Structures
1.
Amino acid sequence: MDKIEDRYMAGRHFMLGNYAVVEGALAAGCDFFAGYPITPANEITERMSERLPKVGGKFLQSEDELCSIYAVTGASLCGAKAMTATASAGFNYMQEGLGYATSVEAPCVIVDVQRCRGENYATQSDVMQMRWGPSGDYQGVVLAPSSVQELFDYTVEAFNIAEKYRVPTIVMSETTIALMREDLTIPEPGEIKIEERKKPEVPPEDFLPFSPDEKGVPPMPEFGEGYNTLYSLNPHDEEGNINWDPDVFENMYEREMGKIKDNIDDITQVEEYYTEDAEVILVAYGSECRPALDTVLKTREEGEKVGLLKIDTVWPVPEKELREAADQASTIFSVEMNIGKYSREVERVCAPHCEVKRITKNRGAIHTSGEIYSSIKEVI
Amino acid sequence: MMEKIEKLRGNLREDSLPHFFCSGCGAGQVMNFFLQAADEIDLDFDNLVAIGGVGCTARIPVYLKCDALHGIHGRVFPWATGIKLKNPDLNVVVFAGDGGVGAIGGNHFIQAARRNLDVTVVVVNNLNFAMTGGQVSPTTPSDMNTTTTPFGNEEEKFDLKKLHEAAGGTFYSRWNTSRSQKSIKAIKEALEHDGFSVVEIIAQCPTHFGRYALGTGKPVEGIKWIEDQSLTIEEAESMDEEEVKDQFIVGDFYQKERPVFDGSTVFEEEE
């Protein structure tokens, strides 16, 4: 097994979820981290403080979460692969900085280990804030891991999406998986696909900082390379200059959102379990996929045609896959651990085509498979 | 003379001009001071990052032909922290007003001073929130009328120098817009200083502070009022605290040496 001084701890581990996030970040090339103490995300910050300086990165314990997100953005504009981690209350503070990072298209990764109202109860209640948190219009990307292995894998993927599309990418963690130890396999370095951000191929005098490539993503220089780029929150034209022309305003938003929407097939991922002949499909994300899959297995044993659509990328919504599920199933159950938030998205896409029911739990604890089983038994 | 102007203009984004400062605003003067100071030390604008938050002063980086950030109020020091940690070779200059430093960015300012972050901060202290219409700020003198203190300012004003010094900052100068050569020299020395250097320039705001607090929108009256309230460090030394309480004490206060910030924990390989 590799030493802790190495960037890649390739091999098999029995590891804490929060630690797996750190290992995923390092495997993806993270070289800057800023974090402020908050439970249940502390193990990420603590492990980063030990791991990152040993592999040539910079660690900052910030004075607050605002500092975290802005320091991350500043480092990103200097070429860093940068990350911060927090929990729900800290994620609130970050909305302002998330809005800025989105508008200047600074690649970065934000981990939110969701918790409830100041306590560390399990929840998925930030799912809407992750999509609609900052003011202004934007389209972000949010990944929802359901295990320690996926905390590693999706953190790598979050860096890849962030760099490829110049978009802040959120890893939506939860108390359930963050504070759990589980089997984790870290591949050898060459086996992990790593994306690097595209840099300008033209000299500074010919460079337009916000002129997109064929994917809608502008190539990005680093600070200090002579490209003299202005990164303003304010509406800006392709040259980066603040510009109040309504056409500039509209084009800017259309491109920033379009680069995600137009590449949705490359960005969004789902996994399907026993859906090929399913008449009842559970739709779940994050740790709720675990009891949902258990329920599917139990009902399959009973001969019922039940499947699971596991949403790995909650934002942007994988509408195509949801629609396919709706066309096939007679009933879809939207399973989540909050008052019923993402269910609205599931209903928006699926309800015109099949029956959609909600299985929600907002008691600070994950569903048991028995609870989900009882709910779907009314239908099957 | 024309040659020098052309040279200084070369460091501006020509297509962003004319700038949006009001006629007679101190921020335009301070931008000029900065360009002159930078020119005197041959500052490489390709290796410069200028940072502005939101406000009148915060607009200065928008006009400078260098890498720049703009548009978020008060988060200038966190940005600078991330930039300097990732690339310590960059020169980073923050342009902020009394609101950005003394109000919304106050804690970030304290922490950057404590860490001795190696950046230069040019504070244009125009004694009010000017861009938003002349509201009271943490540096507005007591009793003054502003658009949110119509019956006079009941709060005590903030001395940003004392804040900086107590927090551990290593360079501080305060001047006013009527002392251009002193201001330019201070900015130049601040740029050359290793550590958290601040040059505060008391500046006139004819449009808001002038009209509401001083009762005159004439720039020259604002400049004169500030100059009349200003005492040098030496002049202030012989006076008691009560006498100088409402004055602007100007001068080069201190320049200290202390290691600069390079991360909250730094791993050093054992030999």
Note: Chain A touches chain B through 50 residues (CB under 8 Å).
2.
Amino acid sequence: MAEFKHKDIIALRDLTAGEIELLLATAENMREINSRAIKKVPTLRGKTIINLFYEASTRTRTSFEIAGKRLSADTVNISPSTSSSTKGETLADTALNLLAMKPDIIVMRHAVSGSHYFLSKKLPNCSIINAGDGAHEHPSQGLLDMLTIKDRFGRLDGLKVAIVGDITHSRVARSNIQGLTKMGSRVFLAGPPTMMPPGVDRLGNVTVCADMKEAISDADVVMMLRIQQERQGKTLMPNTREYSRYFGLNPDNLKLAKPDAMVMHPGPINRGVEMSSYVVDGAQSHILKQVENGVAVRMAMLYHVCGGELE
Amino acid sequence: MAENTTVLLDESGIKRALTRISHEILERNKGVRDVVLIGIRSGGAYLAEEIGKCMEIIEGVRVPVGAVDITLYRDDIKSHAAHLPVGKTDISFSLEAKQVVLVDDVLFTGRTIRAAMDALMDHGRPSSIQLAVLIDRGHRELPIRADFVGRNVPTSLKENVALCFDEKNLPVEVVLEK
């Protein structure tokens, strides 16, 4: 099995298929800890993890915090409303100040794509984990989605995965495209032309469909994306009702997918917009399993970056 | 066979040792009541299965067998350039008030056993933990001793003791590599 020697996990684009497989295998075995009465192992005792979230998050931040605590690391959360960034401090200055606290890992979410590469250069002795950067990548979400799919089908190779929604603004879509194509899945994208980035079909085994029906027909996995009202600025669609009619998942068009197809969503869900409540709460929905796998995947990420080429 | 290896135990030797250990475990615990076997991954887990089978032949009862992976409890985790892959801990029964027999292939510094005991304690509070090993090669660095030993082998620190398994994970032989 591959060895993991990266200091940071910023994008699934930077990882090989073997490294992704190792992270998923570790996550699978970490799950046992989460089902015990004493949900803690001493592995990262004495390590300090700073969760630095410049954007709102409940799921991801809590999940990283629990993951760190279950590995016995000390975790500290810093969010913009309580930090100096509201007073005008730059990311570089914040980073250098945090460094004085000698963290081993910084988990950051930031609105600017690629800001983690900048932070990583500034902090050569600290591991950086990306918890979402702008419209670039969200590697922990990509990994937990792949783990959830692997749980269901036992493999990723050869599966047809449809990703539907606002591809342009979605870092979840980018991480999934990078990860899934490396692991041998066939990815089909659908969304309004205003939300489809040009050249996305050059990312590997990716097919862009004009019609959502084409993407989800015979699919093993249907992954719906959230309409990100906060990121869009200008309206890219006439209204949510029209969007829902052409690109929303409902019990009728779900019938086009394979009968045992799984439905996923990175959350939070806009019920009635990208997905009808019947589908969200239906038997094919794996949305809560995704959340459950989040902790194990993040434990695996923290564990492997800590063993990198530090010191 | 290379010149610098010696066979310490062959297949039938291993079988006899495991049969004796099984008898000793039953004798010490006066039967199979509350006895569970936990093997340390990977070698010990396979041996625990074998001891479980022996005990079933002797006593006619199948005792619960589990496996523990100690990677996350190691004390030398910093000395590895990359973190080791994590194996699966598989204990599908409660350890509360059980007589746990921990099984490993080779007892050496005792650090693996320390890690395994810490892992077991996180799963519950057994009434006792006993240790069964196929080979005790000495050189302890912690105050740990085995309750059931297949064979004591004096070794130098430069030597290596290895238990080989076949493709069905059945023990084949124990060799001393110089």
Note: Residues 287-306 of chain A form the longest helix (20 residues).
